[in-house]
Design goal:
4 helices, elongated
């Protein structure tokens, strides 16, 4: 079967949200194990699993939402506008909570705790899932 160049952008446009969601979910899950904070005078590193369970639960919820968007896209299943809007809301809340915990109210106090590397790619992963949710929502509204 010969593919024409006209069909390629359409197929890429349909698969891009699921790729973003899959990459964002994998990245976010991986960076939960990286150091997020350096605590105390000895600069002991702490990751997301060793800190606030609420933040961790929120991160894992974003991982699951991104995996669901990626799986639906990979199977070719349509994702409704409500699902896209819900995933966007979840990722927006996760972004705000992670920014708050990294830069405003660090565990152990801001003077004794420094931000390590792990929080930055976590924000990238959350925002990749968020971009996927925006694209999914836009495509669902467009096809309606």
């Amino acid at each position: 079967m010969i593919e024409t160049t006209g069909s390629r952008p359409g197929r890429l446009r349909r698969r891009a949200p699921s790729l973003l969601a899959g990459i964002g979910s994998i990245l976010l899950l991986a960076v939960t194990f990286l150091p997020w904070y350096r605590v105390g005078p000895g600069q002991l590193t702490r990751n997301a699993w060793q800190q606030d369970p609420l933040v961790l639960a929120l991160l894992l919820a974003v991982v699951l939402a991104g995996a669901a968007l990626a799986a639906a896209g990979a199977r070719g299943l349509p994702v409704g506008p409500r699902a896209g809007a819900s995933a966007f809301g979840l990722t927006l809340i996760a972004t705000l909570v992670v920014v708050f915990s990294l830069f405003i109210d660090r565990p152990g106090g801001n003077a004794a705790t420094a931000v390590a590397f792990g929080g930055y790619p976590a924000l990238l992963g959350i925002n990749l899932v968020k971009a996927s949710a925006v694209f999914t929502h836009a495509l669902a509204r467009r096809s309606r």
